[in-house]
Amino acid sequence: MKHLFFFISFGAMSAPLQAEMPDSSAAQQEQQRRLFIQVEHQISSASPSQVERWLTELQDYPLQPYLKQRWLQRRISQHDDIARFLEQHQGSPLDWPLRRPWLMSLAKGQQAARFLEHFPGSNDPELNCIAIQQQLKLRPATIAEIWQQTESLWMVGKSQPKACDPLFSQWRNAGQLTTEAVLRRLQLSAEGGDAGLIRYLKTLLPAQQQYLADLWLQVRQNPAAIAKPRFLPGKHVIERDILAYGLKRLVWRAPDQALQTWQRYASDPYFTAAQRLDVQRQFAIALAHKGDERASAWMDQLPPEQLDNTLAQWQVGHALRELNWPRVQQVIERFPVELAADINWRYWLARALEEQGQQAAAEPIFRELAQRRHFYGFMAAAKLGLPPSLAHNPVTVSAEDLTLVQQHPAVARAKEWLALGRMTEARREWNFLQRAVTEPQKLAVAKLAGQLEWHERAIFTLADAGYWDDVELRFPLAFKEEIQRFAKSAKVDSGWAMAIARRESSFMPDANSPVGARGLMQIMPDTANYIAKKKVPLSQLYNPVTNIDFGTDYLNYLMRRNDGNLIMATAAYNAGYSRVRQWIPRDRALPVDVWVETIPYRETREYVKAVMAYYQIYNIRLNEPKDVFQPLLAMQIGRAGK
């Protein structure tokens, strides 16, 4: 099978795209591509007459508007031409790169009316500040609303762009800045915002309240400061916000110190019920996360309305870590009906019943879950000796919707960017397409992406449409030959390797994570260097073949380091070998499903569940007879296991 990304990586066009046109048309389009690339590099320095000739010559080429956009960026004073262009391409990737500089030019040129006519609103604080300034020039009658908008822009926990300074000065000079507003922004800055902003906000407070900024800054830098005797002088109610903030941070670093400090303030009349509840919730979660036996008592203090998915996870997880099955059952049976219906808690209710000898009550739940395509659905099927269910239900789209989507200009532009190997631009067009079509037509967009073998877009578009049951589109056999070849060489299961690639990148060879993992299987550069025993150029990690080679070798390494334990090797691929070793219980052995559910990091916990479920799906799709989940039933992790 040929795959779109494989050919893009090597500068060629994929087979599905080539097949859409006869040889003569293909040759003409290839000539247009070469001219487009030439013009793209020369248009900034070309004469108007030359540009007009190019635009005319390429008028039928899908990417011609990008050349016109670039030309208009040079002629920012051509207001009517720009307005027409933006109207034609509103909301597309062609819009904002031209609209923003034009709006900035209009503001600079004192053209407030035109600016507001063509400003659609944005998430750009600089432009929003400028827009409000333009409103002030034209609409003084709505001054109260304008000042409200200004306060919303000001009330963030970080510094805003310098372009906002004139607006904020007008707002302050109009007497709109209050001490209460400064105190609210001070709290936003301390609680995860820009700590450097605290020093500036201190200057805006009355002299007798400036000490509050100092307290916020001290607790931000060191939450243990709240444990000092007489740290809070008791002069202002805001001190209790500082106290709550410090307690919630301190319990993660030093639980005993946090609990001792809590006792000093437990009866403080100025510590509000809402603040106490907020702190109690954080204490319960932090103690459960650390496996502290005091967690249950804190959990039990919380009222039912505090219960959500996060708290439910730690309530059940804490009881599971203790293998306290009656407690697991009790906790889940207290959940609201909607929460208790979640597949995770249905499974653990059945497990609790099973462990207490109530097999007759557990089996119907397991049988129900065994119909689900999920980690716990596959676990339930394995327990009952049933075959895993894929619950496959292919997408169906009307011929009309598919035709309408195929004719959308964004499709032609995306295909051209793909043919040029320009993935970022292609994705921008596809994202615009998803926003531009109706909800039913999103399924046609996903179907079209699948036909193009653009696997990531098919996967993401189905997710955007909320359609989860087309297994073939969501779990494509992408890079099948390459993965099978290198998996066999590395002595790892190809279904597992494919599941890792699906979870890591959705088969995006050019994927690049915030921490620096690269390519199809998200290989860290240091990992590649270790495996290759030499310095590997970063560009090689974007080559799918090289990436799969390194990825499967790394899977082999993790299996060996974890004594062949598939679950721990999978967790280590996400969290690292050393961290996973820290999660192995030293005082007991846990069933593997319990160990997975009690992994402290939510990301890794969900990662392991997803990869193992994907592994089962790919085994079925690859016609492998092995049931991935059967061996897990007897697996233990901890003192008595590996």
| Low-confidence runs | 1-19
Q: What Rg, in angstroms, do the CA atoms define?
A: 30 Å
Tertiary shape: globular
Strand residues, percent = under 5%
* Helix and strand composition category: mainly alpha
**Main sheet: strands, sense, barrel:** 2 strands, antiparallel
Helix content percent band: 55-70%
Number of strands: 2
Total of DSSP H or I helical runs spanning 4+ residues: 38
Average pLDDT rating: 93
- What's the end-to-end separation, in Å? 39 Å
Strand order of the largest sheet: 1-2
Record keyword descriptors for this entry.
disordered N terminus, two-stranded antiparallel ribbon, mainly alpha, 642 residues, globular
Topology of this structure?
Blueprint: H1 4-9, H2 15-18, H3 23-42, H4 48-57, H5 64-74, H6 79-88, H7 96-108, H8 112-118, H9 125-138, H10 143-154, H11 165-173, H12 179-190, H13 196-202, H14 210-221, H15 238-253, H16 255-265, H17 273-289, H18 295-301, H19 309-321, H20 325-333, H21 337-340, H22 343-355, H23 359-369, H24 375-384, H25 399-406, H26 409-419, H27 423-436, H28 439-451, H29 455-465, H30 471-474, H31 480-490, H32 494-505, H33 525-532, H34 544-561, H35 566-575, H36 577-582, E1 589-591, H37 592-597, H38 602-621, E2 636-638
Antiparallel strand pairs: 1-2
Helix pairs in contact: 5-7, 7-8, 7-9, 8-9, 9-10, 12-13, 13-14, 14-15, 15-16, 15-17, 17-18, 17-19, 19-20, 20-22, 22-23, 23-24, 25-28, 26-27, 28-29, 31-32, 31-34, 32-38, 33-34, 34-35, 35-38
